[in-house]
Amino acid sequence: MEKIGEVERLGYDSIWTAESWGNDAVTPLAWVGSQTSRIKLGTAIMQLAGRSPANAAMTAITMDTLSNGRFIVGLGTSGPQVVEGWHGVPFNKTLTWLREYVTIVKQIFAREAPLEFDGARYQMPYRGEGSSGQGKPLKSMVHGRPGIPVYTGSMAPQSQVMSAELADGCLLTCMHPDRSDVLMENFNQGFEKAGNGKSIETFDIAPTVVVIIGDPESAMIPCKMSLALYIGGMGSKQKNFYKEYLSRVGFEEACEKVQTLFLDGKRDEAIAAVPDEMVDALYLVGSKDRIRDRFQRCSWPSSTREAAMKIGIVGGTGREGRGLGVRWAKAGHDVFIGSRQAEKGIAKAAEFSEEFGVALQGGDNVAACTHAELVIVTVPYARIGLPSSRSKRPSATKSSWTSRCRFSHPRSVL
Known about the structure:
Radius of gyration: 23 Å
Structural class: alpha/beta
Shape: globular
């Protein structure tokens, strides 16, 4: 809990829990939520087989109410070993299963009418075999937040299409940040199906990014062990969504070799066959400087956004400001580096632009805020005359530019 308190203090966006066949995902978040006030609480994932859609919705409404609107519902099918071996229900028609589940949960959140649903897997009220015939449509007694966000764990292409169509975000086991085109091909299909103007601007891509600080060679070993398992063991020779994704982003030859070795029982050799380049493409490992450098050079999901923003970085001449400025500029945004002295801001913007091949503007901190739709603050608020609370939007009476800017702590952006 001490570490969780520290990451909340630093401004991290969210904390996530998982479940397999031991602890559940929700109870630890209830414990965390009772001892935090701002950080969001997400499940990655709640297994469909472990709860009815109504029970999942009730749990989410309760958690969201108790945490003052901080809960994120991450849902997924899990795999056949867990679904049939642990929960004792059939693992089939998983895309239909997830679609019906998400639809029902969102209907319960909305409370627009008593719940009625007639699907392949779920019927509410239930009138099938063994029914007493006494079921009636019900509406949640609790008026929860209608827009509690729902994410789906979706690595398969058609599941990603469905996620973009119905959900608010997609949880990914891994992602190659420089090949967002592979994902966007699926997500764009889903946005089009949604038919309501939905786009990447209102949809969250949430990949797992392993971060290990240490000697790069040693730090890569657990990453290679995990990747070998996913490529070789999570699926069959004919159908493995993890292998298919990693093949599409440039590692087809390596994936074939790893899967063959793994399925032949040569697991140590399969682990050794995972190339360093694959680990570096998906994760952040090595020394702090190496991790920082690789993070700055990656085109993370923001690069898929179509509309550029004007971003001002207050205190942007330091190492953290440099990294954020370069990252957002590479993503196609209009970035202004601010400093207490205008001359320093101008000089550092020119220096960073030349070093990293991007176009940055520079000046003083007030100019950075005047320039921006989004202001990222990398120095203590007291040093620039801004309010100390990050949870409150600055009053327009403070100065002429505060009324139209959004403010963010740097680590909430990271």
